[in-house]
Automatic annotation (TrEMBL), chains A, B:
Cofactor(s) it depends on: Zn(2+)
Identification of the protein by name: Enoyl reductase (ER) domain-containing protein
SUPFAM superfamilies membership: GroES-like (SSF50129), NAD(P)-binding Rossmann-fold domains (SSF51735)
Species, as recorded: Wickerhamomyces pijperi
Keywords: Metal-binding, Oxidoreductase, Zinc
UniProt cross-references to PROSITE patterns, sorted A to Z: ADH_ZINC (PS00059)
Domain Alcohol dehydrogenase-like C-terminal intervals: 209-335
GO terms, molecular function: oxidoreductase activity, acting on the CH-OH group of donors, NAD or NADP as acceptor; zinc ion binding
Length: 383, 383
């Protein structure tokens, strides 16, 4: 038996760390999955996007305690990440109704919601109090969830999305988390404008993994899109992605005056909250419109804002978390209809491949998203 | 000629300071009004509410430079405050169309907007870039505006409101600024909920001058209202004002859990931003709902929020400024229809009266709003 052969369904194989200082070198490991529930689905993974949240969790930047997996009541004490999964259904619990064996599906950053609370019932399942993340999440029974840099992943069907046939797996893997994370606030943030028959004007701050998808998605939703970055280094790329305009906030131009009262929505896709010229940015919002952050910084980092900052236009600021399952399905249908494609560089999965992806992502050396591929070859699956 | 006799229309008389350290002792003074414009209206003042912003401006807390009136190009170098004016029209420019001589009118915190920009045209005149405040505001010609602790006040008709006959002047004076300041975010913040036929649930934080009017106004708008205060000392009052519930944030109860996912809107009427248990408060908001501040602190004070704080419910936070003229008229009609009445203590105007009002307001010794009255008697006007 080869070292990579998977003893499925008793065990999954994946790349995991046991020490945050080793964040860039996950090692191949075997582990038992969570106990199989009646609504659970096992996905045999074909490919998996690489999301910046992986860095934050592997480095333990979003926690003030030790690595969560160390407290697992059963299952591995190590942590495997990855939550932009495309694969096929290979096992279903008796209560699964939405899928069939062999179907191609996607899984994002959420693996469980209760489906019973008012939030779940109102298509706000990403804000369910019982939310469990696809990795580094705590199930009721104490199992710490394990992600998609792996042969298989187990999740509740309520968090799994059908994939339209016309979409290529490795290209749309990043939509499962990153794409959905920008789709939800974009859709919610301009819905009222579209309903009035007005073309929304949207500013996308930070042209990276999230921002580049946000440009495409905002365009597909019918907005005028302005890319906002510190320098002009990504201007050409942003225009290729579909941006109608570009603002370099580091320039000496009075850009906030030239763009006064312009935007219906500012979507902040930059990962740092403190580096932003927040006061100047808020001047570009129309009255009572929002600045929404999806890029999450270190847990100790803060926005510092004076109530006066908002006063010039009665603007608001906040954050948005992922998207609902309904929104994920809408997004995938939008991608199929508009055929927009995230700019993806593929890296075959292996210890070296995972390490390369994480290291280069950490260095900002990606234009604009990695997808780990070749899972079938590596794990001997896909047969 | 008595010391208080006014040489109108060449001069107004009012109570003004020339040094922020003397904030609690404005002195009777004469001054020339701004040059009379074609849309200007002179109001002979009957009474004037006392607003907490007076304290901030007299103490120069909302500025990082010296007292603004010192830089006036003409007119007084002293500052008279007051912007909850009720009085009658005694002079009108040739282009005034909305009013007639002798009509009872109100004036709030805004004395000028351009009426030409997209914001003015969309009933967002309070966010007009050319906004001039009723006092401490800078006109294009360099005159620093002078407020309503005075015999008369001059303002553009676009900022003046007709007063329904059934309302008593001294009772509804505080609606001109304070009432409007809470009405606008209340109305805007629950409009979508009402449109869906749902009864909005609104939390009013800080039961003082602004908060007590917010309770009444939110009730009149059709909301379920919960008063939120540090202790239970104002609970009985809040219930009398119409509150359906009460939360004491300083108590040891897990109030944020008991009120999880409850509010469509949190309106912060407390004047300090840093004292609030912001993280706990945001847990009580429903998904994607706002926390809006109308109480303005010292200009150096900040909200400190982590993007993570918002994540549990995708909430947003912001500030709201005054209200539009259209909203002021709606509010006065709402007051006439529902006959809600701010709790007002009257103090006859004089140097001693103004000093008492400011000092007691500064000490929090007011339940819940002062109106300065007796202007006609004091200034020998009203004939």
């Amino acid at each position: 038996m080869s070292v990579t052969t998977v003893n499925y369904p008793e065990e999954f194989k994946g790349f995991a760390i046991s020490d945050p200082s080793e964040w860039s070198n996950p090692k191949l490991t075997s582990y038992i999955p969570k106990n199989f529930g009646p609504k659970d689905v096992d996905i045999e993974i074909e490919c998996c996007g690489v999301c910046a949240s992986e860095l934050a969790v592997l480095k333990n930047k979003w926690s003030s305690g030790p690595l969560k997996s160390l407290s697992s009541t059963y299952g591995p004490k190590t942590q495997c990440v990855g939550h932009e999964v495309i694969g096929k259904v290979v096992k279903m619990g008796p209560d699964v109704t939405e899928f069939k064996l062999g179907q191609r599906v996607g899984l994002g950053a959420q693996a469980f919601s209760c489906q019973e609370c008012s939030r779940c019932k109102a298509d706000n399942d990403q804000y369910c109090e019982k939310y469990v993340g696809t990795y580094n999440g705590v199930y009721d029974d104490g199992y710490i969830s394990q992600g998609g840099y792996a042969s298989h992943v187990r999740a509740n069907e309520c968090c799994i999305f059908p994939i339209p046939d016309s979409l290529e797996s490795h290209i749309i893997a990043p939509l499962q988390c990153g794409g959905l994370t920008v789709y939800s606030p974009l859709k919610r943030g301009i819905k009222d404008v579209l309903a009035e028959g007005i073309k929304p004007v949207v500013g996308i701050i930070g042209i990276g993994g999230l921002g580049h998808m946000a440009i495409m998605i905002a365009k597909a939703l019918g907005a005028d899109v302005v890319a906002i970055s510190r320098s002009t280094s990504k201007k050409e790329d942003a225009i290729k992605m579909g941006a109608d305009g570009f603002i370099a906030t580091g320039s000496t131009e009075p850009w906030e005056k030239e763009n006064y009262d312009k935007f219906h929505l500012l979507l902040n896709c930059a990962s740092s909250a403190t580096d932003l010229p927040l006061d100047r940015l808020l001047r570009t919002l129309q009255v009572n419109r929002p600045f929404i952050s999806v890029g999450l910084p270190d847990i100790r980092e803060k926005f510092e804002v004076s109530p006066f900052t908002f006063l010039q236009s009665g603007s608001v600021i906040g954050s948005s978390k992922l998207g609902s399952k309904a929104e994920a399905i809408e997004l995938l249908e939008l991608a199929a209809k508009h055929q927009f494609k995230p700019w993806v560089e593929t890296i075959p999965i292996s210890e070296a491949g995972v390490s390369e992806a994480l290291t280069r992502l950490n260095d900002g050396d990606v234009r604009y998203r990695f997808t780990l591929t070749g899972f079938h070859e590596f794990f001997g699956t896909g047969k």
